[in-house]
Amino acid sequence: MPCHPCIDSQDQYVRPKSLVTFETAADGVWLVSAHDASDNDILPELEDLQRRALASEILEDYRHARGSGPPTGS
Questions:
Q1: Where does the pLDDT of residue 74 fall: very low under 50, low under 70, confident under 90, or very high at 90 and above?
Q2: 33 burial class (0-12, 13-18, 19+ CB within 10 angstroms)?
Q3: Is 14 buried (19+), middle (13-18) or exposed (0-12) by CB count in 10 A?
Q4: SS3 letters for the chain?
Q5: CA atoms within 13 A of residue 68's CA, in its CB half-sphere
Q6: CA diameter of the chain
Q7: pLDDT confidence of 18, banded at 50, 70, 90?
């Protein structure tokens, strides 16, 4: 599964980022885990709005890197 560094959804002002593991889907991405700088999986603690922000960040970065559309990873 691909991973992507994202801003830390619990504290956007700290330097460390979260490493988000995700799977691709026809309509976007499905978040599998989000590990903070201490390697704790913070995904279960995130609110829907924070999860959507992470998914949007991943999609936006991949659209810029690969043209347009959702990422195609394995």
A1: very low
A2: middle
A3: exposed
A4: CCEEEEECCCCCCCCCEEEEEEEEECCEEEEEEEECCCCCECHHHCCHHHHHHHHHHHHHHHHHHHCCCCCCCC
A5: 0
A6: 33
A7: confident
Distance CA 71, CA 26 (A): 10
- The pLDDT tens digits of the residues spanning 37-60 come to 889 999 999 999 989 988 998 888
The residue extents of the domains of the chain are 3-66
Amino acid at 46: L
d(CA 14, CA 25): 30
